[in-house]
Design brief:
The protein has 224 residues and is α/β, with parallel strands linked by helices. The chain contains seven helices and eleven strands. Helix 5 packs across helix 7.
C-alpha cells in the first residue's frame, strides 16, 4: 500500500520525453521532486494545486534529461539537491545546494523516508529511490526493459548486478516509476515486471550482457 501521493509528470523537449515525479505526504503536504526537467510551468502547477511544501530534489543520475531543472528548483525553493557521491565525483556534476548521498544513507524529509539503492549500470553512480510502496528507478529499470549500457561509466555487468539486487530486495507489490515509458504507463507492480520484463529473467551474467549489448537495437530513443 502506498501512503504517499505520487504524481507522475510527463515532460518533453524535442525528442526527449521524460517522467519526473512529485511525491507528497497526504497529511503534512511535505514533498519531494524527482528528476525535474524541461517544463517549469507543468511542474509548478502540480506543486501549486497539491499545496506541496517542497523539501528536496532527488536525482537518479546526472543525464541532462533528468537534471535539467534541478538548479532552477533548488534556487527557487532554497532546497537541497541529492545525488550519489559516486555520480557527482565521477562525472563532475554540480548545481546549487548539492548534497551528495553516501550509500546506503537513509534520507528523511519531514514525514517522508527515502531509502536510496545504489544501482550502477546505466551510469557509474545511478540510484533508485524506495519510498514506502514505490520505487523510482530513473533509467535503471523501465516497465518494459532496462537502461542502455553504452555510455561513459556504463557497464552491463554492473547493470546485471543491480537488477539482481533489486530482484532480491524489492517486494512484489511495490509500484515501479521509471524515468521513461516505452509504451506502458508508470506504476505497474514489481510482480508485473518480474513476469513480463525480459531483462529481469536472466540468471546468467554472460547471457544478460550478450542480450543487453546486442547489435542493431531499434527504437532506443522512441519514448512513448
Amino acid at each position: 500500500m502506498i501512503n504517499i501521493l505520487v504524481y507522475p509528470l510527463k515532460v518533453t523537449k524535442l525528442l526527449f520525453k521524460n517522467y519526473c515525479y512529485l511525491i507528497v505526504h497526504p497529511e503534512t503536504r511535505e514533498a519531494i521532486l524527482i528528476d525535474p526537467a524541461w517544463e517549469i510551468d507543468k511542474i509548478e502547477y502540480q506543486i501549486s494545486i497539491c499545496e506541496a511544501q517542497l523539501k528536496a530534489i532527488l536525482l537518479t543520475h546526472h543525464h541532462i534529461d533528468h537534471v535539467n531543472l534541478a538548479d532552477f528548483f533548488a534556487n527557487r525553493y532554497n532546497i537541497p539537491v541529492r545525488i550519489s557521491r559516486i555520480e557527482m565525483d565521477f562525472y563532475g556534476f554540480s548545481c546549487r545546494h548539492l548534497v551528495p548521498i553516501n550509500h546506503p544513507d537513509e534520507l528523511t524529509f519531514g514525514q517522508i523516508r527515502v531509502r536510496p539503492i545504489f544501482t550502477p549500470g546505466h551510469t557509474k553512480g545511478a540510484i533508485c529511490y524506495w519510498i514506502e510502496g514505490a520505487l523510482f528507478t530513473g533509467d535503471t529499470l523501465f516497465i518494459e526493459g532496462c537502461g542502455m549500457c553504452f555510455g561513459y561509466g556504463s557497464n552491463p555487468s554492473e547493470m546485471f548486478d543491480s537488477l539482481s539486487y533489486l530482484k532480491k530486495t524489492i517486494f512484489p507489490e511495490v509500484h515501479i516509476y521509471p524515468g521513461h515509458s516505452y509504451g506502458q504507463e508508470p506504476g505497474h507492480s514489481f510482480a508485473h515486471l518480474l513476469e513480463n520484463n525480459i531483462y529481469l529473467g536472466f540468471k546468467n551474467r554472460e547471457d544478460f550482457i550478450a542480450f543487453r549489448m546486442r547489435k542493431n537495437q531499434r527504437g532506443l530513443l522512441k519514448f512513448s
